Amino acid sequence: MPQGQPTTVPDDGLTTRQRRNRPLLAVHTGDGKGKSTAAFGLALRGWNQGWSIGVFQFVKSAKWRIGEQTVLERLGELHAQTGEGGPVEWHKMGSGWSWTRKSGDADDHAEAAAQGWEEIKRRLAAQTHDLLILDEFTYPMEWGWVSVDDVVSTLRERPGFQHVVITGRRAHPALIEAADLATEMTKLKHPMDAGQKGQRGIEW
Amino acid sequence: MPQGQPTTVPDDGLTTRQRRNRPLLAVHTGDGKGKSTAAFGLALRGWNQGWSIGVFQFVKSAKWRIGEQTVLERLGELHAQTGEGGPVEWHKMGSGWSWTRKSGDADDHAEAAAQGWEEIKRRLAAQTHDLLILDEFTYPMEWGWVSVDDVVSTLRERPGFQHVVITGRRAHPALIEAADLATEMTKLKHPMDAGQKGQRGIEW
Q1: Band of the pLDDT at A6, cuts 50, 70, 90?
Q2: Which intervals of the chain are annotated as region Disordered (chains A, B) (predicted)?
C-alpha cells in the first residue's frame, strides 16, 4: 500500500477536510455568568472569518440594547462599508420580532418564541448564516413554547456548514446529547451576593 | 428625619453611586471552554462604553493571532479614527512582550511572565486602563512565576476604577477569595472527545 494512505476510511461520505471542519452545535448552560458573553465572543471570531452572523435573542427585554449588539452591528456596517469581516444581523424577540411588523402578537411571548423558531428553521434550510446564536433559547424549550424534538431533529439535520450556539440555564438533556460541545458555567461568587447591583459595561 | 434619608451610611467613604459602580475583579476558571471568550466578550461591552481596554495574554503562543485580537484592535483603530468606543491595547507574552525590544529574555517564560506582571502593576498604579484582561494569568501564578500574595494585594489595593478579569484553569483560592465575581466553566462535552480537531473560527 502506498505510504500515507489511510488504512480505513470512515464511511461517512466526508473528505478529511470536511471531517475536520464540521459544523458545531454548542450549548452554554448553567447558572453562572458568561454563557451569552462567550457566545458573542465567538461571534467576534466568526465575523473575523467573514462569516454571516445571525443573533436571535429569545428572552431579554427588547428595551435593552446591550453593548454587544451595538458593537456587532457596527462590525456588520464595517463589513458593508469596507468588506472586512462578515455581515451581522441581530434580532430580538420582545414584542414580536424585528422582521415582523404585525401588532397584536406583542403580548404573547409563547407565540413570538414559536414564530422566532419558525424563522430560524427557514434560515437554517436556506443556509442564510454561518453562525447562528440562539440566545436564551433554552427557556422557550423548557416552557414548551417550542418542541424539543423539533429543535433537536432540525439541528441534527441542518444542511451545509452552519455553526449554532444555544445559551441559557437548564439546557434540555436531549439538546446536550445532540451538542458537539457543551459547557456549564457555574457561579462560584457573584457581586449580587455582596448586595451590589448590576452595572453598565459589566452586565450590559 | 427627612424622607429618603438613609438611616445609616456605610463608613466606606463612598457615594451611593460609587458604591453601586465598584470596580470588579472577575475570575473565569475551570476546565471548560469560554473562559477567555467571555472575557473578550466583556471587552466588547467595555469598548462600547468608551473604556480603555488592555489585554495581556500570558501563555498562548505569540504566533497565534486569534480572531478576537484582530477585531478588538480594529475597534481600537475605529476609536482613533472616529472617536467611537475606546482605545484597545493587546499585548502577548510569547518571546518577550511587545513593549520590550530586548532580545535574550526570549526563552525564559518565567522571566517574561514576571516582567509582564511588573508592567501591569505600573499600569494599575497609573490607572492606564478601565478594563484589564489578564488572559491565562492563573498559570504564572500556579507555577510561582509571580507571587500570589503580590498579585492579590496589588489587585485589592488598586486605585481608582479599574475592572480586572483573570482567566485560566485552577485559579488560586486566594484569588477567588479576592474576586467579586468568579465563574467556573465546566466541560460537559467537547468535540475533541469525538476525535475532532480544533478549527478556525471556533478555536481561534
Answers
A1: very low
A2: 1-22
Q: So what's the pLDDT on residue A160? A: 95
A73 near B CB under 8 A:
no
pLDDT(B98) > 80: no
pLDDT, tens only, A30-60: 999 999 999 999 999 999 999 999 999 997 5
Which residue segments constitute the domains of chain A, with CATH numbers given? 50-61+73-169 (3.40.50.300)
Put simply, whether A178 touches B (Cβ < 8 Å) is no
**Between chains, do A40 and B42 touch, taking CB under 8 Å as contact?**
no
Residues of chain B positioned with their CB less than 8 A from the CB of A78 = 74, 78
The Cα–Cα gap between B153 and B194 comes to 43
Q: What average pLDDT does this structure show over B131-153?
A: 97
How many angstroms from the chain centroid is the CA of residue A184?
A: 16
The residue written with cell numbers 433554552 in the block is: A138
Interface probe for B, chosen from A42, A78, A129, A166 (most Cβ of B below 10 Å), is A42
Inform me whether the C-beta atom of residue A128 falls under 8 Å from chain B C-beta atoms: no
Q: Does position A19 have pLDDT exceeding 80, yes or no? A: no
Q: Which long-range contacts (CB under 8 A, 24 or more apart) does B117-126 make?
A: B117/B146, B117/B150, B117/B151, B119/B56, B120/B56, B121/B154, B123/B54, B124/B154, B124/B155, B124/B158, B124/B159, B124/B162, B125/B159
